[in-house]
Amino acid sequence: GGSWKFLSFITPEQDDGSAVSARQGSPRFGAHRYFYPRPLPLRNGRILCSMRSQRDPTSILWTEMFESEDGGRTWHFLSRVNDWGAPGDIVEMADGRIACVYGYRLRPYGIRARISDDGGRTWGSELILREDGGSWDLGYPRVVEVSPGTLLTIYYMNTRNDPIQLNGGVRHIARTLFTPD
Predict the structure, then answer these.
(1) Which residues is 103 bridged to in the sheet?
(2) Residues 25, 53, 157, 24: what is their CA dihedral angle, to the nearest 10 degrees?
(3) Beta strands across the sheet bearing 172-178
(4) Shortest CA distance to 85 belongs to which of 116, 126, 46, 48?
(5) Given a cut of 60, is residue 167 above it in pLDDT?
(6) What is the Cα–Cα distance from 108 to 97, expressed in whole angstroms?
(7) If we measure between CA atoms, which residue out of 179, 57, 54, 58 comes closest to residue 129?
(8) Model-level pTM?
(9) Pairing outcome for strands 76-80 and 32-41
(10) What is the distance between the alpha carbons of residues 62 and 86, in angstroms, rounded to a whole number?
């Protein structure tokens, strides 16, 4: 990490406009098409990279997947993981499936996941891991496979039943252990 050189853009250099927002004020709450890249080198040599896209970080955000087949020299759009929820963290499971876990900032607030059986090209039904969030301010998960077929995800959140309520509850680090079908 002592020195770096630019290799390539993951996303297109020009925004296609789908993140346009009328929101005014801080750019933190404005539209950003791509950010929070999470790359994952696969056993077959491909690299997947999940990207957060948003129009508004409190509700209108989703996860897209990009792929490189040449060590990161070039990239192309592969799929849209969901319509709501980001950023997505990804893991290649022992059986070759790809799991993507993400924060869900619409009511009921929580943590959700999707599984791909074809290397990230398409995604199965949404799995609801948690839906007891106290506010939209949650997520940023990390996911690992702790044994074949069993995933552990960690994230920050609050719950709607927290004894101390501060804008939906005091944030804490939480975890979910799950086995996707």
Answers:
(1) 111
(2) 10
(3) 139-147, 150-157, 172-178
(4) 126
(5) yes
(6) 27
(7) 179
(8) 0.89
(9) unpaired
(10) 5
